[in-house]
Specification:
mainly beta, Immunoglobulin-like, 2 domains, five-stranded mixed sheet, 17 strands, about 5% helix, about 45% strand
């Protein structure tokens, strides 16, 4: 398992409202338990005109269940390419399957309420993770003793996060990519700090 803690030096508010994502982009030696998607769908709620969660992970073959406990109608428009899905008004509960992975994070928007935005991470490789409210990110069941390229992503990043401070040292992660070779067991990689220059100004 890999563990890393992210710190957003721009503001505490950004850290609390946002999630940092890591994808083990070259981990093709997938653990057998990850080859079959979970049968439980991911719930995406539209309560109080906010998508909750606003960033979430879905594996190919999994479904997303839309919930709307209120009477206000919503549209859920997905910026997808590989899956055949159209935006629908959410007035009750809808279950949508996603059989294929997408190459990039999928934006979700509501045309009725333009402030409602979310992102779905739907990749062919199941080795990915999101940071929690404390900035801690974990990815389990990764292959050991082989180089793995990780790609960093943040919903508010400006193009890609290329420069970070990793364990108090400035480093370049070209196009948000970094390579590590993990050891069996827990790999606590330390702390990555991200400058406000890496994020959109608006």
């Amino acid at each position: 398992m890999v563990r890393i803690r992210s710190v957003f030096s721009s503001s505490k508010k950004l850290a609390l409202e946002s999630s940092l994502g890591f994808l083990a982009a070259s981990a093709t030696d997938v653990h057998p338990s990850l080859k079959t998607p979970a049968p439980t769908p991911i719930d995406l709620n539209t309560k109080l005109c906010v998508f909750d969660p606003h960033v979430f992970i879905v594996h190919p073959g999994q479904s997303v269940r839309f919930l709307n406990v209120g009477s206000e109608p919503h549209s859920a428009n997905f910026g997808i390419i590989q899956n055949n899905l159209i935006g629908l008004a959410v007035v009750g509960g809808w279950l949508f399957p996603f059989p294929h992975g997408e190459r990039t994070p999928t934006p979700i928007e509501c045309n009725i309420h333009p402030w409602m935005k979310a992102h779905m991470l739907l990749f062919d490789l199941p080795c990915s993770g999101l940071s929690d409210e404390k900035g801690v990110l974990k990815i389990e069941k990764l292959p050991a003793s082989m180089p793995i390229t990780f790609k960093i992503w943040h919903e508010k990043m400006d193009k890609s996060i290329d420069q970070v401070t990793f364990n108090e040292k400035p480093v370049d992660w070209p196009r948000g990519n970094v390579q590590w070779t993990l050891q069996p067991g827990m790999n606590d990689l330390g702390i990555v700090k991200i400058s406000p220059n890496e994020f959109k100004t608006k």
